[in-house]
């Protein structure tokens, strides 16, 4: 992995908040955008800063011809408000050519594998970001982990029909693994628990690991995807081409995919 760092802030300056770190990383990622590009537009609080920056540059005339393909209904609404022209992933005129995708991540390991989709948009994110020529990920340094699954859930999108059965099959993939658990995600609504539903009308299974995922990630990925009822999972393996990391000291580091 190659890297490049920005200059630290002046001595004595207060450390930036996590939201400020997200904004710094997002603005640095937008520097990869060139006029005429079609962009994959990510979902989440970090990607939102990139949407705002792209909108500002479009209004200033600095990015003529730029359009985006949104990864969620929330992003579609935000991008529209920011003034970013939108395109579908596929349509009567054929699929859009995505030059560059920009999105955040929940975790990034040393090989630039990612956990994404804790917000529930993993399927559309993987479809769009997998279709792009380059994928720039924006994070603060708290997202860097030794193994995927260290800091929280790895989501799996499943069809609602037979979801408890599918949950049981997912558990069998990790049968006997100490500290592993999995559950269907629910949300509170009017003081009652309801199933969380994705933009695609599906449910989310959350997988938890005591000390992260160990072993062959691609083999584990294949085992999950072979389960009938599983639509997609939130491990994005080998997809990121560049990771922009905002550090607590105010510097920015670029990590590049090994060739």
From TrEMBL:
Pathway: Carbohydrate degradation; pentose phosphate pathway; D-ribose 5-phosphate from D-ribulose 5-phosphate (non-oxidative stage): step 1/1. The keyword Isomerase applies. GO terms for molecular function: ribose-5-phosphate isomerase activity. SUPFAM superfamilies: D-ribose-5-phosphate isomerase (RpiA), lid domain (SSF75445), NagB/RpiA/CoA transferase-like (SSF100950). It is an enzyme of class 5 (isomerase). Its EC number is 5.3.1.6. Residues 1-21 are annotated as: Disordered. The keyword Isomerase applies. Keywords: Isomerase. It catalyses: aldehydo-D-ribose 5-phosphate = D-ribulose 5-phosphate. Gene3D superfamilies: 3.30.70.260, 3.40.50.1360. Pfam families: Rib_5-P_isom_A. HAMAP family: Rib_5P_isom_A (MF_00170). Belongs to the ribose 5-phosphate isomerase family. This is ribose-5-phosphate isomerase. It comes from Urochloa decumbens.
